[in-house]
Amino acid sequence: MALRRALATCALLAGAWAAHAQDAAPPHHDAHGFFNPTGAAAARPLSDIVRWKLDAWRDGLPPPPQAPTPVVEPALALLRANTAPIRTVGAQAAHVAVPSATWIGHATVLVQCGGLNVLTDPVFSERASPVPFAGPVRAQPPGISMADLPAIDVVVISHNHYDHLDLNSVRELNARSHGHTLFLVPLGLKAWFARQGITNVIELDWWDRHRVAGVEFELVPVQHWSARGLDDRNQTLWGGWAVFAPDLRWYFSGDTGYSRLFTQTRERLASHLRDGYLFDVALLAIGAYEPRWFMSAQHMNPAEAVQAHKDLAARRSIGIHWGTFALTDEALDQPPRDLAAARAQQGVPEQDFFVLPIGGTWWPAGPPAAAKQ
User: Fold this and answer.
1) 144 vs 101: CA distance, rounded Å
2) How far from 111 is each of 68, 87, 260, CA to CA, in Å?
């Protein structure tokens, strides 16, 4: 009798544990890979890809741009002066870095915050492709060359597509810092970096956090997908980044379709709200959105990006992921025009959601005082 009661108790405990484990399972991954909790199938089947490409060929898409993507000379001296002095022992008291964001091209932005130099999705190669002789080619060089970058402390990666995770770029960044640059990546990508000889890597799940010199980096959910080949679809995670430094709170979308996840992010991170704003600036993708029947689940259009700006409670937003690689059916220079129309329709002032020229820098507090002397 005692044995039967013990076995029954074990069975009940096992059942309760299994139910708890099922309840506690993440809503976005299981033993088979990662998926969108929104239910969106962002990765399209081969038949849809063929249909899209045939339609584009028939209709002569994308059309040529009406004007080249604006480019300016980067403020290299200002950017270097902003963080270089605090890297010298004893100099921090005499110099306070100020925040900035410089658009290098596509989804690559140099963000200076908390005395750190941070790069988002660094792509400096001529093509966004697994091979150097084919695939989307740059419309113009990076706004800052790899050689001219200041010392990079942290690189954040949103996902593993070739226009966001470029092998040559991450190898060179690792080599130029002798392994001191920290790479923050979504789940599953640490092993890929290790195969490239890059070991200063921390991988995170959605809502995981990592602090670097007082700056908090948090991987947040977005609606997208991942793959670098034919047999690894959705085997690594994707995400956006919420970064909280003493002098700048900022968001980086990576690639994403519009979804409720923006509102969920604002609600989850509400403790960081100040004066009604969660982020001082959001770096939001506004390009690669046509045709909508194919792209809507994986890439926002500018109207959706404006809504995301509102959902995230961002004080300012900068449109990125346009004007560099011709990836989809809209003209290379169409996103800013559609952004202007969306701002007008949704009552958002231009100064609240704008674009930079490649190489251009946004200084929310003005350039560093040391550099202006």
Assistant:
1) 12
2) 25, 17, 26
Residue 91, pLDDT above cutoff 90 = no
CB 203 within 8 Å of CB 188: yes
- Residue burial 48-69, b: 16+ Cβ < 10 Å; e: rest: eeeebeeebeeeebbeeeeeeb
3-class secondary structure, 296: coil
* Rounded-to-integer distance, Cα 328 and Cα 325, Å: 9
Q: pTM, whole model, 2 decimals?
A: 0.91
Backbone torsion region of residue 228, taken as left when φ is above 0, otherwise alpha when ψ lies between -120 and 50, otherwise beta: alpha
| Pair 217, 199: CB distance under 8 Å | no
pLDDT in tens, 237-250: 999 999 999 999 99
Predicted local distance difference test score (pLDDT) of residue 8:
46
* Interhelix angle 261-268/302-311, nearest 10 degrees: 20
